[in-house]
């Protein structure tokens, strides 16, 4: 009986030790790994793009994160669809991106493809809003945001 009791008394300190090691891993070691840093960069970029609200009559799509060729370069992309025309939508997204700290770089119009591209930049991000007239009173907005190295 003494041996069984001794084993039960040893289980508690071993469980506490294992939980302590796991806690140390998640609190101090994992955030300093390249995977932990990449996760934080992705989360920050996604949060930045989520802060860009679409116009009232536009539905927002799901954000996709793409890893570019350069190890530290990421691209976040979202497709919004609605009835707001390119001029009104471009003005709205321009205000949203300006509030997010990005400056306006200009606009390109492609009359053959019926698209307008609005460019924005900050010290750590580039962003583009591409508006495409998809059909009568239906407009697609492709919003991309890229990290700068």
Task: Describe the fold and architecture.
There is one protein chain. The chain has helices spanning 2-29, 34-50, 86-99, and strands at residues 58-59, 64-67, 74-82, 103-110, 115-121, 125-135, 138-147. The mean pLDDT is 87. The chain has one domain: TATA-Binding Protein (2-Layer Sandwich). Strands 1, 2, 3, 4, 5, 6 and 7 form a seven-stranded antiparallel beta sheet that branches. It is α+β, with helices and mostly antiparallel strands. The chain is elongated and about 85 Å long.
Features:
149 residues, TATA-Binding Protein, 34% strand, elongated
Topology summary:
Blueprint: H1 2-29, H2 34-50, E1 58-59, E2 64-67, E3 74-82, H3 86-99, E4 103-110, E5 115-121, E6 125-135, E7 138-147
Q: State the end-to-end CA separation.
A: 65 Å
Low-confidence stretches: none
Structural class: alpha+beta
Mean pLDDT, rounded to whole units? 87
Number of domains: 1
CATH topology group: TATA-Binding Protein
Order of helices and strands: HHEEEHEEEE
Query: What value does the Rg take, in angstroms?
Result: 24 Å
Q: How many strand units?
A: 7
Question: What is the number of helices?
Answer: 3
Beta-strand content bin: 25-35%
The level of helicity is 25-40%
Main CATH class: Alpha Beta
* Biggest sheet descriptor: 7 strands, antiparallel
Query: Architecture in CATH?
Result: 2-Layer Sandwich
Overall, the morphology is elongated
Give a short overview:
This protein is α+β, with helices and mostly antiparallel strands and about 150 residues long.
């Amino acid at each position: 009986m003494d041996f069984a009791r001794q084993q039960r008394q040893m289980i508690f300190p071993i469980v506490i030790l294992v939980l302590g090691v796991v806690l140390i891993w998640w609190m101090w070691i994992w955030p300093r790994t390249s995977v932990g840093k990449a996760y934080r960069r992705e989360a920050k970029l996604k949060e930045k793009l989520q802060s860009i609200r679409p116009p009232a009559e536009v539905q927002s799509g799901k954000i996709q994160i793409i890893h570019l060729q350069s190890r530290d370069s990421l691209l976040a992309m979202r497709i919004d669809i609605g009835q707001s025309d390119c001029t009104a939508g471009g003005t709205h997204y321009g205000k949203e991106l300006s509030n997010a700290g990005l400056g306006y770089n200009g606009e390109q119009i492609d009359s053959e493809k019926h698209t307008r591209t609005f460019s924005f930049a900050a010290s750590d991000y580039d962003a583009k809003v591409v508006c495409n007239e998809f059909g009568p009173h239906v407009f697609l907005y492709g919003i991309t945001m890229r990290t700068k190295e």
